[in-house]
Input
Amino acid sequence: MWFDKTGYVAHEQITAHARITNAGTAPAAEARVNSTGNLSNAYWTPLPPIEPGQTVESSLTGLVTTESGPLVLTVTVTLLGGAQDANPADNTSTASVPITYVRGSYQGTVYGDRNGNHTMDPGEALPGVRVDISGGHSEVSRTTVTDTAGRFAFPDVPAGRYSTWFTSADWYLTAPIVQVTGVNDPEVLIRGVPVITSALSASAAFTRRAYRVNDVAHLTMTLTNTGPALVTDLAADCWAYPAGQVNAGSLAEGGPGVAVPAGARVAVDLTVRITKEAAAEGSLRVWCSVGAPPRLNGMADAVRATARIPGGLAPKVVGYLGLFRYKPVLGSPASDPLPGVKVYLRDQVTGRVVTRAVTDAEGNFAFYRVPANTYDVGVVGPWRLVYTDPEFVVRDGENGLDPYPYNQHRLYVVPGPDQPDPDAAPPPGSRPAPAGPVVAKPRPGATPPAGLATTGVELTWLALGGLLTVVVGTGLLLATRRRWR
Output
Protein backbone atom coordinates (compact mmCIF):
# COMPACT_ATOMS: atom_id res chain seq x y z
CA MET A 1 0.00 0.00 0.00
CA TRP A 2 1.00 3.64 -0.49
CA PHE A 3 -0.48 7.17 -0.59
CA ASP A 4 -0.17 9.96 -3.15
CA LYS A 5 1.59 12.20 -0.63
CA THR A 6 3.78 11.77 2.41
CA GLY A 7 1.38 13.84 4.52
CA TYR A 8 -1.94 15.64 4.28
CA VAL A 9 -3.81 18.57 5.77
CA ALA A 10 -7.03 17.23 7.33
CA HIS A 11 -9.41 18.93 4.89
CA GLU A 12 -7.57 17.58 1.80
CA GLN A 13 -8.71 14.62 -0.28
CA ILE A 14 -6.60 11.55 0.48
CA THR A 15 -5.93 8.87 -2.15
CA ALA A 16 -4.70 5.42 -1.14
CA HIS A 17 -3.38 2.71 -3.49
CA ALA A 18 -3.02 -1.06 -3.17
CA ARG A 19 -0.91 -3.32 -5.40
CA ILE A 20 -2.03 -6.99 -5.61
CA THR A 21 0.10 -9.79 -7.11
CA ASN A 22 -1.01 -13.32 -7.91
CA ALA A 23 1.95 -15.34 -6.55
CA GLY A 24 0.24 -18.68 -7.16
CA THR A 25 -0.06 -20.98 -10.16
CA ALA A 26 -3.84 -20.67 -10.74
CA PRO A 27 -5.78 -17.65 -12.06
CA ALA A 28 -7.61 -15.48 -9.51
CA ALA A 29 -10.81 -15.07 -11.48
CA GLU A 30 -12.55 -12.87 -8.95
CA ALA A 31 -11.06 -10.92 -6.04
CA ARG A 32 -12.19 -7.99 -3.90
CA VAL A 33 -10.39 -5.29 -1.90
CA ASN A 34 -11.76 -4.26 1.53
CA SER A 35 -10.39 -1.81 4.08
CA THR A 36 -10.91 -0.57 7.63
CA GLY A 37 -9.69 2.67 9.18
CA ASN A 38 -10.49 6.35 9.65
CA LEU A 39 -11.14 7.22 5.99
CA SER A 40 -14.62 8.37 4.91
CA ASN A 41 -14.69 6.04 1.88
CA ALA A 42 -14.30 2.25 1.76
CA TYR A 43 -15.08 1.61 -1.93
CA TRP A 44 -12.01 0.44 -3.85
CA THR A 45 -11.94 0.26 -7.63
CA PRO A 46 -12.89 -3.28 -8.80
CA LEU A 47 -10.15 -5.75 -9.69
CA PRO A 48 -9.90 -7.53 -13.05
CA PRO A 49 -9.10 -11.30 -13.21
CA ILE A 50 -5.46 -11.81 -12.13
CA GLU A 51 -3.36 -14.36 -13.98
CA PRO A 52 -0.48 -16.20 -12.23
CA GLY A 53 2.46 -13.80 -11.79
CA GLN A 54 0.34 -10.77 -12.78
CA THR A 55 0.14 -7.56 -10.69
CA VAL A 56 -2.86 -5.20 -10.64
CA GLU A 57 -3.71 -2.04 -8.70
CA SER A 58 -6.76 -0.58 -6.93
CA SER A 59 -7.38 2.80 -5.26
CA LEU A 60 -9.85 4.84 -3.24
CA THR A 61 -10.23 8.52 -2.25
CA GLY A 62 -11.77 10.05 0.86
CA LEU A 63 -11.34 12.37 3.87
CA VAL A 64 -9.97 11.58 7.28
CA THR A 65 -12.81 11.11 9.78
CA THR A 66 -10.96 11.86 13.01
CA GLU A 67 -9.88 15.20 14.49
CA SER A 68 -6.44 14.09 15.63
CA GLY A 69 -3.78 11.48 14.87
CA PRO A 70 -2.62 9.84 11.62
CA LEU A 71 -4.71 8.13 8.98
CA VAL A 72 -4.40 4.36 9.35
CA LEU A 73 -5.78 1.93 6.77
CA THR A 74 -5.81 -1.87 6.86
CA VAL A 75 -6.47 -3.43 3.47
CA THR A 76 -7.47 -7.06 2.84
CA VAL A 77 -7.86 -8.86 -0.50
CA THR A 78 -10.25 -11.84 -0.59
CA LEU A 79 -10.98 -14.42 -3.26
CA LEU A 80 -14.60 -14.94 -4.26
CA GLY A 81 -16.49 -17.79 -5.87
CA GLY A 82 -15.13 -20.54 -3.59
CA ALA A 83 -11.53 -20.22 -4.84
CA GLN A 84 -8.81 -21.37 -2.40
CA ASP A 85 -5.78 -19.26 -1.43
CA ALA A 86 -2.58 -21.10 -0.64
CA ASN A 87 -1.43 -18.42 1.85
CA PRO A 88 -4.25 -16.12 3.16
CA ALA A 89 -1.84 -14.62 5.70
CA ASP A 90 -0.18 -12.42 3.06
CA ASN A 91 -3.49 -10.94 1.86
CA THR A 92 -3.60 -8.11 4.44
CA SER A 93 -1.51 -4.97 4.65
CA THR A 94 -1.61 -1.88 6.90
CA ALA A 95 -0.33 1.60 6.06
CA SER A 96 -0.57 5.02 7.67
CA VAL A 97 0.12 8.64 6.74
CA PRO A 98 0.49 11.69 9.01
CA ILE A 99 -2.32 14.27 9.08
CA THR A 100 -1.97 17.93 9.99
CA TYR A 101 -5.08 19.20 11.69
CA VAL A 102 -5.92 22.88 11.24
CA ARG A 103 -8.62 24.52 13.31
CA GLY A 104 -10.31 27.87 13.02
CA SER A 105 -13.48 29.80 13.78
CA TYR A 106 -16.69 30.86 12.05
CA GLN A 107 -18.87 33.68 13.31
CA GLY A 108 -21.46 36.18 12.15
CA THR A 109 -24.47 38.41 12.82
CA VAL A 110 -28.11 37.84 11.90
CA TYR A 111 -30.60 40.69 11.37
CA GLY A 112 -34.11 41.18 10.02
CA ASP A 113 -34.35 43.90 7.38
CA ARG A 114 -37.60 45.48 8.60
CA ASN A 115 -37.39 48.60 6.43
CA GLY A 116 -36.05 46.85 3.31
CA ASN A 117 -32.95 49.02 2.88
CA HIS A 118 -30.52 46.05 2.79
CA THR A 119 -28.64 47.50 5.76
CA MET A 120 -28.59 46.44 9.41
CA ASP A 121 -30.17 49.27 11.37
CA PRO A 122 -30.58 49.67 15.15
CA GLY A 123 -33.21 47.34 16.51
CA GLU A 124 -32.98 44.85 13.62
CA ALA A 125 -30.74 42.25 15.34
CA LEU A 126 -32.44 38.85 15.60
CA PRO A 127 -31.80 37.06 18.92
CA GLY A 128 -32.70 33.44 19.57
CA VAL A 129 -32.19 32.18 16.00
CA ARG A 130 -30.83 28.64 15.84
CA VAL A 131 -27.70 28.23 13.70
CA ASP A 132 -26.49 24.82 12.48
CA ILE A 133 -23.30 24.12 10.55
CA SER A 134 -21.97 20.94 8.99
CA GLY A 135 -18.73 20.24 7.17
CA GLY A 136 -15.04 20.40 7.86
CA HIS A 137 -12.63 17.56 7.20
CA SER A 138 -14.66 15.01 9.14
CA GLU A 139 -18.20 16.26 8.51
CA VAL A 140 -18.54 17.70 11.98
CA SER A 141 -21.82 19.30 13.08
CA ARG A 142 -22.26 22.20 15.48
CA THR A 143 -25.30 24.10 16.79
CA THR A 144 -25.67 27.43 18.57
CA VAL A 145 -28.21 30.25 19.08
CA THR A 146 -27.79 33.96 18.34
CA ASP A 147 -27.43 36.27 21.35
CA THR A 148 -29.26 39.54 22.04
CA ALA A 149 -27.09 41.31 19.45
CA GLY A 150 -27.85 38.68 16.79
CA ARG A 151 -24.32 37.27 17.08
CA PHE A 152 -23.27 33.63 16.72
CA ALA A 153 -19.82 32.03 16.91
CA PHE A 154 -18.17 28.64 16.42
CA PRO A 155 -14.74 29.32 17.96
CA ASP A 156 -12.98 25.98 17.49
CA VAL A 157 -13.86 23.91 14.44
CA PRO A 158 -11.73 21.82 12.05
CA ALA A 159 -10.74 23.60 8.86
CA GLY A 160 -12.84 22.89 5.81
CA ARG A 161 -15.96 23.82 3.92
CA TYR A 162 -19.14 24.39 5.96
CA SER A 163 -22.81 24.65 5.07
CA THR A 164 -25.10 26.74 7.31
CA TRP A 165 -28.79 26.56 8.23
CA PHE A 166 -30.90 29.02 10.18
CA THR A 167 -34.19 28.25 11.93
CA SER A 168 -36.70 31.08 12.37
CA ALA A 169 -40.49 31.06 12.18
CA ASP A 170 -40.73 34.71 11.09
CA TRP A 171 -37.66 35.35 8.94
CA TYR A 172 -36.19 33.77 5.84
CA LEU A 173 -32.39 33.73 6.17
CA THR A 174 -30.06 32.84 3.31
CA ALA A 175 -27.77 29.96 4.26
CA PRO A 176 -24.17 30.64 3.13
CA ILE A 177 -21.34 28.19 2.46
CA VAL A 178 -18.02 29.24 4.02
CA GLN A 179 -14.43 28.00 4.08
CA VAL A 180 -12.60 27.78 7.43
CA THR A 181 -8.81 27.79 6.98
CA GLY A 182 -7.46 28.98 10.33
CA VAL A 183 -6.37 32.22 8.64
CA ASN A 184 -8.77 35.08 7.98
CA ASP A 185 -11.68 32.94 9.11
CA PRO A 186 -15.17 33.93 7.88
CA GLU A 187 -17.21 36.68 9.50
CA VAL A 188 -20.65 36.91 7.84
CA LEU A 189 -23.63 39.28 7.99
CA ILE A 190 -26.89 37.45 7.33
CA ARG A 191 -29.88 39.49 6.11
CA GLY A 192 -33.35 38.18 6.88
CA VAL A 193 -36.56 38.98 5.03
CA PRO A 194 -40.03 38.40 6.49
CA VAL A 195 -41.59 34.99 5.86
CA ILE A 196 -44.65 35.87 3.80
CA THR A 197 -46.77 32.74 4.21
CA SER A 198 -49.14 34.31 6.73
CA ALA A 199 -48.52 37.98 5.93
CA LEU A 200 -48.89 38.25 2.16
CA SER A 201 -51.85 37.25 0.02
CA ALA A 202 -52.14 37.49 -3.74
CA SER A 203 -54.97 37.44 -6.25
CA ALA A 204 -55.02 37.85 -10.01
CA ALA A 205 -57.61 38.57 -12.69
CA PHE A 206 -57.55 39.41 -16.38
CA THR A 207 -58.76 42.91 -17.22
CA ARG A 208 -61.15 41.49 -19.86
CA ARG A 209 -63.29 38.36 -19.83
CA ALA A 210 -62.59 37.36 -23.45
CA TYR A 211 -59.74 37.68 -25.96
CA ARG A 212 -58.80 36.70 -29.51
CA VAL A 213 -55.69 35.05 -30.93
CA ASN A 214 -52.58 37.30 -30.78
CA ASP A 215 -54.21 39.71 -28.32
CA VAL A 216 -51.93 40.85 -25.51
CA ALA A 217 -53.95 40.08 -22.40
CA HIS A 218 -53.36 42.17 -19.27
CA LEU A 219 -53.42 40.45 -15.91
CA THR A 220 -53.70 42.48 -12.71
CA MET A 221 -52.06 40.89 -9.68
CA THR A 222 -53.02 42.38 -6.33
CA LEU A 223 -50.63 41.87 -3.39
CA THR A 224 -51.92 42.49 0.13
CA ASN A 225 -49.60 42.65 3.16
CA THR A 226 -51.40 42.05 6.46
CA GLY A 227 -48.19 41.56 8.41
CA PRO A 228 -46.35 43.99 10.69
CA ALA A 229 -43.27 44.47 8.47
CA LEU A 230 -42.52 45.88 5.03
CA VAL A 231 -42.14 43.10 2.44
CA THR A 232 -39.60 43.91 -0.27
CA ASP A 233 -37.97 42.33 -3.32
CA LEU A 234 -41.11 40.42 -4.25
CA ALA A 235 -40.96 38.45 -7.49
CA ALA A 236 -43.34 36.10 -9.28
CA ASP A 237 -42.69 32.84 -11.07
CA CYS A 238 -45.55 32.54 -13.58
CA TRP A 239 -46.46 30.02 -16.25
CA ALA A 240 -49.34 29.74 -18.73
CA TYR A 241 -51.32 26.74 -19.98
CA PRO A 242 -51.74 25.43 -22.61
CA ALA A 243 -49.13 27.83 -24.01
CA GLY A 244 -47.88 31.37 -23.64
CA GLN A 245 -45.07 33.39 -22.11
CA VAL A 246 -46.02 35.52 -19.11
CA ASN A 247 -44.28 38.88 -18.77
CA ALA A 248 -44.27 39.55 -15.02
CA GLY A 249 -43.09 43.15 -15.40
CA SER A 250 -41.66 44.53 -12.16
CA LEU A 251 -42.34 41.14 -10.53
CA ALA A 252 -40.04 39.29 -12.93
CA GLU A 253 -37.35 37.22 -11.24
CA GLY A 254 -34.06 39.10 -11.35
CA GLY A 255 -35.93 42.37 -11.86
CA PRO A 256 -36.35 45.41 -9.59
CA GLY A 257 -38.80 43.62 -7.29
CA VAL A 258 -41.94 44.97 -5.66
CA ALA A 259 -42.34 46.27 -2.11
CA VAL A 260 -45.60 46.16 -0.15
CA PRO A 261 -45.75 48.17 3.10
CA ALA A 262 -47.36 46.68 6.18
CA GLY A 263 -51.15 46.89 5.94
CA ALA A 264 -51.02 48.03 2.31
CA ARG A 265 -52.14 46.71 -1.07
CA VAL A 266 -50.24 47.00 -4.35
CA ALA A 267 -51.46 46.17 -7.88
CA VAL A 268 -49.00 45.02 -10.57
CA ASP A 269 -49.68 44.62 -14.32
CA LEU A 270 -48.61 41.38 -16.05
CA THR A 271 -49.10 40.54 -19.74
CA VAL A 272 -49.36 37.38 -21.84
CA ARG A 273 -50.02 36.92 -25.56
CA ILE A 274 -52.98 34.74 -26.53
CA THR A 275 -51.73 31.80 -28.60
CA LYS A 276 -53.42 29.53 -31.12
CA GLU A 277 -53.01 26.64 -28.68
CA ALA A 278 -54.99 28.58 -26.07
CA ALA A 279 -57.69 29.44 -28.61
CA ALA A 280 -58.04 25.76 -29.50
CA GLU A 281 -58.89 25.03 -25.86
CA GLY A 282 -61.08 28.10 -25.48
CA SER A 283 -59.17 29.48 -22.50
CA LEU A 284 -55.77 30.45 -21.18
CA ARG A 285 -54.88 29.74 -17.55
CA VAL A 286 -52.04 31.47 -15.70
CA TRP A 287 -50.51 30.39 -12.39
CA CYS A 288 -48.05 32.41 -10.31
CA SER A 289 -45.96 31.80 -7.20
CA VAL A 290 -45.01 34.98 -5.34
CA GLY A 291 -42.17 35.37 -2.87
CA ALA A 292 -38.83 37.00 -2.14
CA PRO A 293 -37.73 34.84 -3.88
CA PRO A 294 -40.68 32.61 -4.88
CA ARG A 295 -41.17 29.40 -2.86
CA LEU A 296 -38.22 30.10 -0.55
CA ASN A 297 -39.39 32.62 2.05
CA GLY A 298 -42.86 31.13 2.06
CA MET A 299 -45.46 31.51 -0.66
CA ALA A 300 -48.53 33.69 -1.08
CA ASP A 301 -51.92 32.12 -1.69
CA ALA A 302 -52.14 30.07 -4.86
CA VAL A 303 -52.66 32.53 -7.69
CA ARG A 304 -54.62 31.55 -10.78
CA ALA A 305 -56.43 33.50 -13.46
CA THR A 306 -58.38 32.37 -16.53
CA ALA A 307 -59.01 34.21 -19.79
CA ARG A 308 -61.67 33.07 -22.28
CA ILE A 309 -61.04 32.79 -26.02
CA PRO A 310 -64.50 32.18 -27.52
CA GLY A 311 -65.23 30.86 -31.00
CA GLY A 312 -64.08 27.26 -30.86
CA LEU A 313 -66.63 24.45 -31.02
CA ALA A 314 -66.50 20.69 -30.53
CA PRO A 315 -69.22 18.92 -32.59
CA LYS A 316 -69.05 15.79 -30.43
CA VAL A 317 -67.29 15.01 -27.16
CA VAL A 318 -67.30 11.37 -26.07
CA GLY A 319 -66.48 9.92 -22.67
CA TYR A 320 -66.63 6.87 -20.46
CA LEU A 321 -67.66 6.54 -16.81
CA GLY A 322 -66.37 3.54 -14.87
CA LEU A 323 -66.61 2.22 -11.32
CA PHE A 324 -62.97 2.05 -10.19
CA ARG A 325 -61.58 -1.40 -9.35
CA TYR A 326 -57.79 -1.03 -9.06
CA LYS A 327 -54.85 0.89 -10.52
CA PRO A 328 -52.08 -1.12 -12.21
CA VAL A 329 -48.50 0.11 -12.07
CA LEU A 330 -48.71 1.15 -15.72
CA GLY A 331 -51.70 2.17 -17.77
CA SER A 332 -55.23 3.31 -17.01
CA PRO A 333 -57.24 2.17 -13.99
CA ALA A 334 -59.33 -1.00 -14.26
CA SER A 335 -63.07 -0.36 -13.93
CA ASP A 336 -66.59 -1.63 -14.59
CA PRO A 337 -68.96 0.39 -16.82
CA LEU A 338 -71.42 2.51 -14.83
CA PRO A 339 -74.72 2.89 -16.75
CA GLY A 340 -77.60 5.29 -16.19
CA VAL A 341 -75.57 8.03 -14.46
CA LYS A 342 -75.89 11.70 -15.33
CA VAL A 343 -72.67 13.51 -16.26
CA TYR A 344 -72.47 17.27 -16.88
CA LEU A 345 -70.03 20.08 -17.65
CA ARG A 346 -70.13 23.35 -15.70
CA ASP A 347 -68.59 26.66 -16.79
CA GLN A 348 -65.83 27.54 -14.33
CA VAL A 349 -66.56 31.27 -14.44
CA THR A 350 -70.35 31.56 -14.62
CA GLY A 351 -71.17 28.29 -12.83
CA ARG A 352 -73.74 27.48 -15.54
CA VAL A 353 -74.23 23.88 -16.65
CA VAL A 354 -73.37 23.92 -20.34
CA THR A 355 -74.24 20.35 -21.31
CA ARG A 356 -75.32 17.07 -19.79
CA ALA A 357 -75.68 13.40 -20.76
CA VAL A 358 -76.59 10.01 -19.26
CA THR A 359 -74.27 7.01 -19.61
CA ASP A 360 -75.47 4.03 -21.65
CA ALA A 361 -75.17 0.34 -20.78
CA GLU A 362 -71.43 0.42 -21.59
CA GLY A 363 -70.77 3.50 -19.46
CA ASN A 364 -70.32 5.69 -22.54
CA PHE A 365 -71.72 9.21 -22.91
CA ALA A 366 -71.58 11.99 -25.49
CA PHE A 367 -71.95 15.77 -25.46
CA TYR A 368 -72.84 17.64 -28.66
CA ARG A 369 -71.88 21.09 -29.94
CA VAL A 370 -69.88 22.08 -26.89
CA PRO A 371 -67.96 25.41 -26.95
CA ALA A 372 -64.22 24.88 -26.62
CA ASN A 373 -63.29 25.61 -23.02
CA THR A 374 -62.07 24.13 -19.75
CA TYR A 375 -64.97 22.92 -17.62
CA ASP A 376 -65.58 21.40 -14.22
CA VAL A 377 -66.98 17.91 -14.71
CA GLY A 378 -69.70 16.60 -12.39
CA VAL A 379 -71.28 13.21 -11.78
CA VAL A 380 -74.75 13.02 -10.20
CA GLY A 381 -75.30 10.51 -7.40
CA PRO A 382 -73.33 8.92 -4.55
CA TRP A 383 -69.98 9.07 -6.33
CA ARG A 384 -66.53 10.56 -5.89
CA LEU A 385 -64.12 11.05 -8.80
CA VAL A 386 -60.74 9.29 -8.55
CA TYR A 387 -57.80 9.15 -10.98
CA THR A 388 -59.63 11.84 -12.94
CA ASP A 389 -58.63 15.42 -13.66
CA PRO A 390 -61.59 17.51 -12.41
CA GLU A 391 -60.87 19.98 -15.23
CA PHE A 392 -62.50 18.72 -18.42
CA VAL A 393 -60.81 20.26 -21.49
CA VAL A 394 -62.89 20.50 -24.67
CA ARG A 395 -60.89 21.45 -27.76
CA ASP A 396 -61.98 23.21 -30.92
CA GLY A 397 -62.85 20.66 -33.62
CA GLU A 398 -63.13 17.73 -31.23
CA ASN A 399 -65.48 15.26 -32.89
CA GLY A 400 -65.72 11.97 -31.07
CA LEU A 401 -62.67 9.77 -31.42
CA ASP A 402 -61.54 11.40 -34.66
CA PRO A 403 -59.38 13.20 -35.65
CA TYR A 404 -56.25 12.61 -33.56
CA PRO A 405 -55.39 13.72 -30.84
CA TYR A 406 -59.02 13.74 -29.67
CA ASN A 407 -59.95 10.67 -27.72
CA GLN A 408 -62.33 9.43 -25.11
CA HIS A 409 -62.50 11.37 -21.85
CA ARG A 410 -62.33 8.71 -19.14
CA LEU A 411 -63.85 9.28 -15.70
CA TYR A 412 -63.54 6.94 -12.72
CA VAL A 413 -65.55 7.03 -9.51
CA VAL A 414 -65.85 5.25 -6.19
CA PRO A 415 -68.79 5.38 -3.76
CA GLY A 416 -68.87 8.68 -1.90
CA PRO A 417 -71.10 11.54 -0.71
CA ASP A 418 -74.22 12.11 -2.79
CA GLN A 419 -73.71 14.72 -5.52
CA PRO A 420 -76.96 16.59 -6.27
CA ASP A 421 -78.40 17.04 -9.72
CA PRO A 422 -77.70 20.63 -10.87
CA ASP A 423 -80.97 20.47 -12.85
CA ALA A 424 -83.05 19.93 -9.70
CA ALA A 425 -86.85 19.53 -9.97
CA PRO A 426 -89.06 22.36 -8.54
CA PRO A 427 -89.91 22.00 -4.81
CA PRO A 428 -93.06 20.01 -3.89
CA GLY A 429 -96.27 22.06 -3.77
CA SER A 430 -95.06 24.70 -6.20
CA ARG A 431 -97.57 25.74 -8.92
CA PRO A 432 -96.50 24.55 -12.36
CA ALA A 433 -96.24 27.12 -15.12
CA PRO A 434 -99.32 27.33 -17.41
CA ALA A 435 -98.97 25.17 -20.47
CA GLY A 436 -99.21 26.87 -23.83
CA PRO A 437 -100.44 25.41 -27.09
CA VAL A 438 -98.35 22.51 -28.37
CA VAL A 439 -97.38 22.79 -31.99
CA ALA A 440 -95.59 19.98 -33.80
CA LYS A 441 -92.34 21.21 -35.31
CA PRO A 442 -91.77 20.13 -38.92
CA ARG A 443 -88.52 18.43 -39.78
CA PRO A 444 -85.78 20.79 -40.95
CA GLY A 445 -86.40 21.60 -44.60
CA ALA A 446 -89.89 20.00 -44.69
CA THR A 447 -92.94 21.91 -46.00
CA PRO A 448 -95.81 22.16 -43.50
CA PRO A 449 -99.01 20.37 -44.63
CA ALA A 450 -101.69 22.50 -46.20
CA GLY A 451 -103.92 24.21 -43.66
CA LEU A 452 -101.52 23.48 -40.70
CA ALA A 453 -101.15 26.46 -38.39
CA THR A 454 -97.46 27.39 -38.24
CA THR A 455 -97.55 31.01 -37.05
CA GLY A 456 -99.13 32.87 -34.20
CA VAL A 457 -101.51 34.66 -36.60
CA GLU A 458 -102.68 31.35 -38.07
CA LEU A 459 -103.23 29.94 -34.58
CA THR A 460 -105.43 32.94 -33.76
CA TRP A 461 -107.61 32.44 -36.85
CA LEU A 462 -107.85 28.72 -36.16
CA ALA A 463 -109.05 29.37 -32.60
CA LEU A 464 -111.51 32.03 -33.82
CA GLY A 465 -112.89 29.66 -36.48
CA GLY A 466 -113.49 26.98 -33.84
CA LEU A 467 -115.33 29.47 -31.65
CA LEU A 468 -117.59 30.55 -34.53
CA THR A 469 -118.40 26.91 -35.28
CA VAL A 470 -119.47 26.36 -31.69
CA VAL A 471 -121.68 29.50 -31.71
CA VAL A 472 -123.37 28.62 -35.00
CA GLY A 473 -123.95 25.01 -33.89
CA THR A 474 -125.57 26.17 -30.66
CA GLY A 475 -127.95 28.49 -32.54
CA LEU A 476 -129.06 25.76 -34.92
CA LEU A 477 -129.75 23.38 -32.01
CA LEU A 478 -131.97 25.93 -30.20
CA ALA A 479 -133.95 26.66 -33.35
CA THR A 480 -134.58 22.95 -33.95
CA ARG A 481 -135.86 22.46 -30.38
CA ARG A 482 -138.35 25.32 -30.77
CA ARG A 483 -139.74 23.81 -33.98
CA TRP A 484 -140.14 20.34 -32.35
CA ARG A 485 -142.07 21.81 -29.41
Summary: The chain has four domains: 2-100, 103-194, 200-308, 313-419. Helices lie at 276-281, 456-484. Confidence is low (pLDDT under 50) at residues 432-485.
